[in-house]
Write a structure and sequence with these properties.
Length: about 775
C-alpha cells in the first residue's frame, strides 16, 4: 500500500501529497486530516474524494488487525486503545464497537476464571467446576475455563485410580502372639493398637480361630497375615476403615471393585496385544477398536496394573535401519578392424534403360552403350575401439524391521498379447498389454538384532532388453538377458560388504571379403576385413547397514514381575516389613551393645479382658532431645522434568540410624534415584543404606544406620530422593508416614516433622 500511495502522491495537489506521505510514515490521523483538507479545497474532484475514502478504509483495516492481534495475545489495554482509535477515525464503526464489547465480556470471563482457579487452589473442586461450566456457557472456547476443567478431571481421575491405602496411627512395628484365639478378638486388639476400623461381613463365621506368631511387622502386614490364615479378603473403604469378607467367588464378585481402562497403542496392533492379554492375564471383559488401535478393558485394579506392565513390554517401536546400497555395472568393450574392403557388386548397363542391380545393390546409371562394369570403391579399413562404461545406482533406503524394500531402476516395457476368438463370420481379436520390468531390480529385507547386527536377505536382478519377437497371432515378446543374486548375510552396524563376480564375457570374430581369395593364408588379409570384438560385463554390489533405532531391551525388573496366584491376580508381591515402620521392607540397624532395645508393642492372647491393658501401653518416653525433620525441594516442577527432595534433619542428640517411610502420588511422580545424605557420614563412616520402592502403591522405604555405638549430631541431610514428574497436578503431596530414629544402644529418639511437602506440578 505504501508504494501505491507514493506513486499517487506525485501527481496530486500539495495537501494531498503531504497527507499520503504522513500515512506512509505511520501518522494516520494527521495524514487523513490533510487528505480531507485537499478534498474540501476541491469539492468537485472525485479522484481526491475516492482517495480519501480508500485510504481511510485501509487504515481502519490495519488498526483493526492490530487490535485483534493484541486481544489474542491477552493485551487488553492495547486492544482497547486500538479499537478506540478506529472509532476516532470512523465514528460508529461496527467492528470496533463489537471489539470493545468482546473486551468487556473478556474482562468478566477473566475474573470468573480467576475465581475458579482460586477455588481449585483452595481444594474446592466442585466450586471450580461449576464456575468453569458457567464460563463455557458464555464463551465455549475460553482457554482459562477449559484448563480449569482439565485440572478438575485430572484430580478426579487421580482420586479414582489411586487405590486407598490404610494409614495406621502406630508408626512402630508390632508383634502378635495368638493361639486358638477368636477372630473377632484379634481384630478388636488390632483396632485398638492401630486405630483402624474393621467391618465384618455377616457371613463370617463367629467360631473362627486364629493362631499366629509374628514379631516386628507392620500393622498392615499383620492384618494381611491374619486374613490369609482365615481365608478372608479385605476391601479398603478409607484410610482408617476396612471391610472383611469371606474369600469366596460370590463375595469377591459382590465386593471387588472393577476399573475400566482404555489402552491406546502406539506401535503394536490392538488385535495382537489383545490375544497376549487374554492368554497371559485371562482377561474376559475386553473390547478391541481397530480404528483407534485401542483396547478397552474392565477388570480389577490389580489386573489393570499387570496389563499396563504387559503392554509396556510389547508396545515398543520397531527397529529401523538405513541400507546404503551401491550397484556398479562395468562394461569393457574392445573391437579391431584391419583389412581391405573390395567391391562386391556389379552393374550391367543397357542403353535407354535404368541400371540393373546385382546383389540388391544399386549402381550409378551410364548413358553409353551396353556393357558390364564394376561401380565400387576399394577401401582400406584400420580401426580399433576400446571402451569402459560404469553404470552406478546408489540408493539409500530406510526400512522398518522385517519389512521388504524394493528398488527398480530401469524401464517398464509393454508386452502386447493378442487373443483371437473364433466367430460365426469373422474372428474377433482382443489385445491386452502387460508390462515387463527391465533394468536393475533390488529387494532387501532386514532383521535388526538386539546386539546391533543386521541380517539382510538380498535379491538383485540386472536385466537387459534384447530383440523383439512377433508371433503368428500378433503377440509381441522380447528376449531378455538377466543376471541374479539371491543371498542372506549378517553384518554389523556400519559394516560394508561387497558382492561381485557376476561376469558375462562375449567374444565375436567376423570377416567379410572376396570369396576364395579371403581364405588364402597370409595374402587373404589383403582381400578381407576381419573384425574381432570382445565385451566383458561385471556386476558389483556394495551394501552397508546403519541402524537408526534399535529395540530398547527393558530392565530386568520390568521383564520379570510378580502376578499373584492362579485364582487372584496381584500386582505387588506380599512382603513382611520386618523391623521397620509401615511401608518399609528393610530391617533396622542392630544394636551396637548388648543392651536390650526398647520393645515394640506386643499383642498377646489374654486370659481375660483386663489383661489387654499392659499389651496396649505405649513405650516410655525417651529422654533424648527431639529430632527435627524438614523438607528441601523446589516449589514447582514441570511434566517430564526431574527434581530432588532432600530430607533435612537437625539432631541435637546422637543419631545412630533411622527407618523412614514416604508416600507419594504414583500417578504424578516416579522415583528415579535415592541417595544417602551427609548427616550420618560424619567422620567418613561407611553406613548401611538401603531402600525399597513400591511404584504402584506410591511408597518409599529407606533405612540408614551407622556402625558402632557413636552417633552423629548436628544438621544435615538424611537422604535425597530424585523424582520425575509424570503428570500435572495443582498440588502433589509427599508425606513422611513413619519414622523410627534410634540413638546409641537402639534407644528410640522422639522427632517432629514440619508437615507434608506440597509441590505444584505444571504441564
Amino acid at each position: 500500500m505504501a508504494g501505491a500511495l507514493v506513486l499517487v502522491a506525485c501527481a496530486g495537489p500539495v495537501p494531498d501529497r503531504e497527507g499520503l506521505a504522513l500515512i506512509v510514515d505511520g501518522h494516520y490521523e494527521q495524514g487523513l486530516n490533510k487528505l480531507e483538507e485537499a478534498a474540501r479545497s476541491d469539492p468537485g474532484n472525485q479522484e481526491l474524494r475516492m482517495r480519501l475514502l480508500t485510504s481511510r478504509e485501509r487504515i481502519v483495516m490495519q488498526i483493526l488487525a492490530a487490535a485483534a492481534s493484541a486481544r489474542a495475545a491477552g493485551d487488553v489495554g492495547e486492544a482497547e486503545a486500538q479499537y478506540r482509535r478506529v472509532l476516532a477515525l470512523s465514528p460508529g464503526d461496527a467492528r470496533a464497537t463489537e471489539g470493545l464489547r468482546l473486551l468487556e465480556k473478556r474482562d468478566l470471563h477473566g475474573e470468573m476464571v480467576r475465581q475458579a482457579q482460586a477455588a481449585l487452589k483452595n481444594g474446592d473442586v466442585e466450586q471450580a467446576e461449576s464456575q468453569a461450566q458457567k464460563i463455557l456457557g458464555l464463551s465455549p472456547r475460553n482457554p482459562g475455563a477449559l484448563e480449569v476443567l482439565a485440572q478438575v478431571e485430572r484430580l478426579r481421575a487421580m482420586d479414582s485410580t489411586v487405590p486407598t491405602q490404610l494409614k495406621s496411627r502406630l508408626t512402630k512395628p508390632v508383634s502378635l502372639e495368638f493361639r486358638d484365639a477368636n477372630l473377632k478378638m484379634v481384630f478388636d486388639v488390632l483396632s485398638r493398637i492401630s486405630g483402624i476400623n474393621f467391618i465384618l461381613d455377616k457371613d463370617i463365621k463367629s467360631d473362627i480361630k486364629v493362631t499366629i506368631y509374628v514379631r516386628n511387622v507392620a500393622v498392615e502386614d499383620a492384618i494381611d497375615l491374619t486374613l490369609v490364615q482365615s481365608q478372608l479378603e479385605k476391601k479398603v473403604l478409607s484410610d482408617n476403615s476396612v471391610l472383611i469378607y469371606p474369600n469366596t467367588p460370590q463375595k469377591i464378585r459382590d465386593y471387588q471393585d472393577l476399573v475400566v481402562r482404555a489402552f491406546y497403542l502406539v506401535n503394536s496392533e490392538a488385535k495382537q496385544t489383545a490375544v497376549v492379554l487374554k492368554s497371559i492375564l485371562k482377561l474376559k471383559d475386553m473390547h478391541v477398536d481397530d480404528r483407534l488401535n485401542m483396547i478397552l478393558v474392565r477388570d480389577t485394579p490389580e489386573t489393570i496394573r499387570l496389563a499396563e506392565k504387559v503392554i509396556r513390554l510389547q508396545d515398543l517401536a520397531d527397529p529401523e535401519v538405513v541400507l546404503e546400497i551401491e550397484v556398479l555395472e562395468i562394461n569393457r568393450t574392445r573391437a579391431l578392424e584391419l583389412g581391405v574392403n573390395w567391391p562386391d557388386t556389379f552393374t550391367w548397363l543397357v542403353p535407354g534403360t535404368n541400371a540393373i542391380t546385382v546383389n540388391d545393390l544399386p549402381f550409378r546409371q551410364h548413358t553409353s552403350g551396353s556393357r558390364i562394369g564394376v561401380n565400387a570403391t576399394m577401401l582400406l579399413k584400420l580401426r580399433s575401439d576400446s571402451s569402459i562404461a560404469n553404470t552406478i545406482s546408489n540408493p539409500r533406503i530406510r526400512i522398518k524391521n522385517r519389512d521388504k524394500a524394493r528398488v527398480l531402476v530401469g524401464d517398464r516395457v509393454p508386452v502386447i498379447t493378442a487373443t483371437v476368438t473364433p466367430g460365426a463370420t469373422n474372428p474377433v481379436t482382443t489385445e491386452s498389454i502387460s508390462y515387463l520390468d527391465v533394468g536393475l531390480k533390488l529387494e532387501a529385507e532386514p532383521v535388526v538384532m538386539l546386539d546391533d547386527d543386521v541380517s539382510i536377505k538380498v535379491t538383485l536382478e540386472v536385466s537387459t532388453l534384447g530383440e523383439s519377437v512377433a508371433t503368428n497371432s500378433g503377440s509381441l515378446a522380447y528376449r531378455v538377458g538377466t543376471r541374479t543374486i539371491n543371498t542372506s548375510l549378517r553384518l554389523k552396524d556400519g559394516e560394508t560388504q561387497v558382492l561381485m563376480g557376476l561376469i558375462r564375457d562375449d567374444e565375436r570374430n567376423t570377416a567379410s571379403g572376396v570369396p576364395g581369395l579371403a581364405d588364402m593364408p597370409v595374402v587373404g588379409r589383403l582381400f578381407s576385413v576381419p573384425r574381432n570384438e570382445r565385451q566383458k560385463t561385471e556386476i558389483v554390489l556394495s551394501i552397508t547397514p546403519r541402524i537408526v533405532r534399535n529395540l530398547v531391551r527393558p530392565d530386568a525388573q520390568e521383564m520379570e514381575f510378580w502376578s499373584g496366584t492362579d485364582a487372584s491376580m496381584k500386582a505387588r508381591r506380599p512382603t513382611l516389613n520386618s523391623g521397620s515402620a509401615p511401608g518399609s521392607a528393610v530391617a533396622p540397624p542392630a544394636p551396637a551393645t548388648p543392651q536390650a532395645p526398647a520393645l515394640p508393642p506386643v499383642a498377646r492372647a489374654p486370659e481375660s479382658s483386663a489383661a489387654l491393658a499392659p499389651a496396649l501401653q505405649a513405650p516410655p518416653p525417651s529422654a533424648s532431645a527431639p529430632l527435627q525433620m524438614s523438607w528441601q525441594a523446589p516449589p514447582t516442577a514441570r511434566v517430564g522434568e526431574q527434581f530432588v527432595v532432600g530430607v533435612q534433619a537437625n539432631a541435637p542428640s546422637p543419631l545412630v540410624g533411622a527407618a523412614m517411610s514416604l508416600r507419594f502420588d504414583p500417578a504424578a511422580l516416579e522415583v528415579v534415584a535415592v541417595e544417602q545424605g551427609d548427616l550420618l557420614k560424619q567422620a567418613n563412616v561407611e553406613n548401611r543404606f538401603n531402600h525399597t520402592v513400591d511404584a504402584i502403591g506410591g511408597r518409599l522405604a529407606v533405612n540408614v544406620a551407622r556402625p558402632g555405638p557413636e552417633g552423629a549430631q548436628g544438621q544435615g541431610r538424611l537422604f535425597n530422593v530424585t523424582f520425575r514428574v509424570k503428570a500435572a497436578a495443582p498440588r502433589s503431596q509427599i508425606l513422611l508416614t513413619s519414622m523410627s530414629p534410634l540413638g546409641p544402644g537402639g534407644s528410640p529418639i522422639p522427632f517432629s516433622v514440619s508437615g507434608a511437602l506440597s509441590i505444584a506440578l505444571q504441564p
